C-alpha cells in the first residue's frame, strides 16, 4: 500500500521566502499566499493524489473509429475539481481575467499538482502556456474568444511542434499552412508525441501548431504559429484528429498522441514566419514547469521512502542504518536545492524585463539539472525500499517511470546544455549571479566552485565549437550545482536549521561536481576512437 502524498506547504513557503517572495508580492500579502497554498495543498493531497495510481494502472484508450480518447472517470472528476476551483487563472493578470498571483505562487501550485498526479498536471500546464501565448501574441479578437474558456478550464491547450523528422531540429518540420480561396489558413501534416492532443476532459482543445507557409525559408526562420481549435465555432469538427496513442514507460494517464491534420482551419498568431519567437513564449515557462515536475515527483518519492524506512526492520529499523540515512539525506537535500533553484527562477520571471537575462540563464539550468537529478533521487527512493521497491504495488516504481521523460521533452537536456554554452554563457549572467550570491557563501567548496565556473566559462567561450559542445552537459551540471549550493548557503546564513543541509550539499554535490572539470575541458578529441 502506497504512502499517501502530503503536500509540504510549509516547506514550499519557506523556499519561496528564501528566494524572494516578498519582493514580488505587490498588493498581495504573505498570509494570502499561505492560505492559497494550504487550500491547494488539500486539493492535491485529498483529491488529485488518490487518482494517480488509478491513471497509471488503467491508462488511456483511443477509439480508432471515432478518434475519441478516454481515460478513467476519476481523473475527469479530479480535473473538474481543479478547474471549478478557479485555479487555472491563478497567475494570469487581472486585466486578462485572472487572479494576478506571481509566477512563484503558480509554480508552488504546479509543484504540488505534479507530485499528486504528474500525468494529469500536464493538462493545466499546457493550458497555462496557451494563455501565456495569447496574452503575449494574440490579437484582441483572439484573446476575447479564447482566454475566457481557457481560464475557466472548459478548454485546454496543446503544443504541436514535433514531427517524425523534426524533434530537436524543429526547423526541419514539414506541416504546411496554405491560404484557401476563402482567405482562411488550412494546415496539413502530421505531428507526433502530442501531450493531451485528444481527450474528453474539456469541451474543446486549442492546438498551437507550428507550420510552414508557402515560400518560407528553410529552418526555424520559416516557421509560423497557428491556433487550431478541435471544434469550430459552428460546432463542427476541425480537420485535426488523433490517429494513434503511444504506449509509454510512464505518464500513462497523459495521452501522447499522433495527430493528423487534413486541411485543418487555423489562425495565425503573431506574424507570419515569427512562429518560433511566439512558441518560445510557451516553451520557456514549460521548461520551468518541467523543473517543477522534477521537484514534485522527487518529493513524493522521498515521502514514500521516508515512511518505509521508518517502518521496515532489518536488525533495527532501517532508517537507523547510516547508509539508509545517507540515501534519505541525499533526497532531502537534493530536493531542497532543486526547489530553491526553481523558485529563484520563478522569482526572476516575476521581476520583469530587467531580470530577463537572468531568467534566460536559469531556464536551461532548472530544466536540465533537476530532471537528471530526479532520476537519481527517485531511483534512490526505490533503493531504500529494497526488493519491494521493484514491485509495482508499492507505487514507488511509478515515480521513476514517470520522471524519466523529463530529461527528454521540452528540449532534451543535451539541447539545454548547448543552449547554456552557446547562447547564455556569452551574456555574462552566470558570473553576475554568482558574484551577487558570493558574500553569503563562505564555504571552501563554494569558493572553489565559483572560481572553477569562472575559469571554465572563459575556456568554453574561447574553445573550438566542437570542443565546447563536447563539454556542455558536464558544465551545465557543475554550473547548476554551484548556483544551487549558493542558494542553500544563503538560506543557511539566515536560518540555522538550513546549515546542515548546506554543509551536506557541499560534500555530496559540490565536491563531486568540481571533479567534472576534466571532462568539460577534455574536448571532442576524447571521443575519437572510443565508438
Ligand atoms: C511523453 C512525451 C510527451 C511529449 N509531448 C510533446 C508535446 O506535447 N508536443 C511536442 O511537440 N512534442 C512533444 N514530445 C516530443 C519531445 O519534445 C521530443 O521527443 C524531444 O524534443 C526530442 O526529440 P526527438 O524525440 O526527435 O529526439 P531527437 O531530436 O532525435 O534526439 C535524440 C538524441 O539526440 C540528441 N540531439 C539531437 N540533436 C542534438 C544537437 N543539436 N546537439 C546535441 N544533441 C542532440 C538529443 O539530445 C537526444 O539525446 C513529447 C515526447 C514524449 C515522449
Tell me what the structure shows:
By secondary structure, the chain is α+β, with helices and mostly antiparallel strands. The protein has helices at 9-18, 30-48, 52-58, 73-84, 103-116, 118-137, 140-151, 275-311, 322-350, 356-385, 396-403, 413-424, 429-437, 444-462, 465-470, 472-494, 499-514, 517-521; strands at 61-62, 69-70, 155-160, 176-179, 185-195, 204-212, 223-229, 240-245, 256-269, 313-314, 316-317. The strands form 3 sheets. Strands 3, 4, 5, 6, 7, 8 and 9 form a 7-stranded mixed β-sheet that branches. A two-stranded antiparallel ribbon has the order 1-2. The protein has a two-stranded antiparallel ribbon with strand order 10-11. A hairpin with a 6-residue loop joins strand 1 (61-62) and strand 2 (69-70). The protein is globular and about 70 Å long. The structure holds flavin-adenine dinucleotide.
Task: Please describe the topology of this protein.
Layout: H1 9-18, H2 30-48, H3 52-58, E1 61-62, E2 69-70, H4 73-84, H5 103-116, H6 118-137, H7 140-151, E3 155-160, E4 176-179, E5 185-195, E6 204-212, E7 223-229, E8 240-245, E9 256-269, H8 275-311, E10 313-314, E11 316-317, H9 322-350, H10 356-385, H11 396-403, H12 413-424, H13 429-437, H14 444-462, H15 465-470, H16 472-494, H17 499-514, H18 517-521
Parallel strand pairs: 3-6
Antiparallel strand pairs: 1-2, 4-5, 5-9, 6-7, 7-9, 8-9, 10-11
Helix pairs in contact: 1-9, 2-5, 5-6, 5-8, 5-9, 6-7, 6-8, 8-9, 8-10, 8-11, 9-10, 9-16, 9-17, 10-11, 10-12, 10-16, 12-16, 13-16, 14-16, 14-17, 16-17
The structure holds flavin-adenine dinucleotide.
Amino acid at each position: 500500500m502506497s504512502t499517501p502524498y502530503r503536500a509540504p506547504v510549509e516547506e514550499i513557503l519557506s523556499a519561496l521566502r528564501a528566494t524572494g517572495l516578498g519582493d514580488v508580492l505587490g498588493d498581495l500579502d504573505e498570509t494570502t499566499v499561505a492560505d492559497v497554498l494550504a487550500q491547494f495543498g488539500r486539493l492535491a493531497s485529498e483529491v488529485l493524489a488518490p487518482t494517480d495510481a488509478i491513471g497509471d494502472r488503467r491508462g488511456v484508450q483511443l477509439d480508432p473509429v471515432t478518434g475519441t480518447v478516454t481515460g478513467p472517470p476519476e481523473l475527469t472528476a479530479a480535473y473538474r475539481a481543479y478547474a471549478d476551483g478557479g485555479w487555472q487563472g491563478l497567475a494570469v493578470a487581472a486585466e486578462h481575467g485572472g487572479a494576478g498571483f506571481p509566477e512563484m505562487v503558480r509554480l508552488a501550485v504546479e509543484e504540488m499538482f505534479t507530485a499528486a498526479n504528474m500525468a494529469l498536471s500536464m493538462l493545466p500546464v499546457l493550458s497555462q502556456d496557451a494563455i501565456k501565448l495569447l496574452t503575449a501574441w494574440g490579437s484582441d479578437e483572439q484573446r476575447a474568444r479564447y482566454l475566457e474558456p481557457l481560464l475557466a478550464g472548459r478548454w485546454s491547450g496543446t503544443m504541436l511542434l514535433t514531427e517524425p523528422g523534426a524533434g530537436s531540429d524543429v526547423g526541419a518540420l514539414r506541416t504546411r499552412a496554405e491560404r484557401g480561396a476563402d482567405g482562411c489558413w488550412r494546415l496539413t501534416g502530421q505531428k507526433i508525441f502530442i501531450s493531451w492532443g485528444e481527450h474528453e476532459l474539456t469541451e474543446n482543445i486549442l492546438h498551437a501548431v507550428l507550420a510552414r507557409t508557402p515560400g518560407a525559408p528553410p529552418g526555424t526562420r520559416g516557421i509560423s504559429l497557428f491556433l487550431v481549435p478541435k471544434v469550430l465555432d459552428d460546432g463542427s469538427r476541425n480537420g485535426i484528429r488523433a490517429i494513434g496513442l503511444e504506449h509509454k514507460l510512464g505518464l500513462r494517464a497523459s495521452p501522447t498522441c499522433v495527430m493528423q491534420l487534413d486541411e485543418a482551419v487555423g489562425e495565425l498568431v503573431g506574424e507570419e514566419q515569427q512562429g518560433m519567437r511566439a512558441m518560445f513564449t510557451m516553451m520557456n515557462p514549460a521548461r520551468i514547469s518541467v523543473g517543477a515536475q522534477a521537484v514534485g515527483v522527487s518529493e513524493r518519492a522521498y515521502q514514500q521512502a521516508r515512511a518505509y524506512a521508518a517502518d521496515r526492520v532489518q536488525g533495527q529499523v532501517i532508517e537507523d542504518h547510516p547508509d539508509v540515512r545517507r540515501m534519505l539525506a541525499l533526497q532531502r537535500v537534493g530536493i531542497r536545492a532543486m526547489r530553491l533553484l526553481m523558485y529563484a527562477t520563478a522569482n526572476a520571471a516575476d521581476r520583469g524585463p530587467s531580470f530577463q537575462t537572468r531568467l534566460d540563464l536559469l531556464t536551461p539550468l532548472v530544466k536540465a539539472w533537476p530532471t537528471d537529478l530526479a532520476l537519481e533521487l527517485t531511483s534512490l527512493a526505490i533503493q531504500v525500499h529494497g526488493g519491494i521497491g521493484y514491485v509495482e504495488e508499492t507505487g514507488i516504481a511509478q515515480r521513476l517511470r514517470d520522471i524519466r521523460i523529463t530529461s527528454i521533452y521540452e528540449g532534451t537536456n543535451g539541447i539545454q546544455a548547448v543552449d547554456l554554452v552557446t547562447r547564455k554563457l556569452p551574456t555574462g549572467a552566470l558570473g553576475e549571479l554568482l558574484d551577487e550570491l558570493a558574500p553569503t557563501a563562505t564555504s571552501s567548496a563554494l569558493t572553489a566552485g565559483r572560481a572553477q565556473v569562472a575559469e571554465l566559462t572563459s575556456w568554453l567561450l574561447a574553445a573550438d565549437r566542437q570542443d565546447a559542445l563536447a563539454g556542455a552537459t558536464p558544465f551545465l551540471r557543475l554550473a547548476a550545482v554551484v548556483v544551487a549550493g549558493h542558494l542553500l548557503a544563503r538560506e543557511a546564513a539566515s536560518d540555522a536549521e538550513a546549515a546542515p543541509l548546506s554543509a551536506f550539499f557541499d560534500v555530496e554535490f559540490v565536491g563531486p561536481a568540481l571533479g567534472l572539470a576534466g571532462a568539460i575541458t577534455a574536448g571532442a578529441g576524447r571521443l575519437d576512437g572510443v565508438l
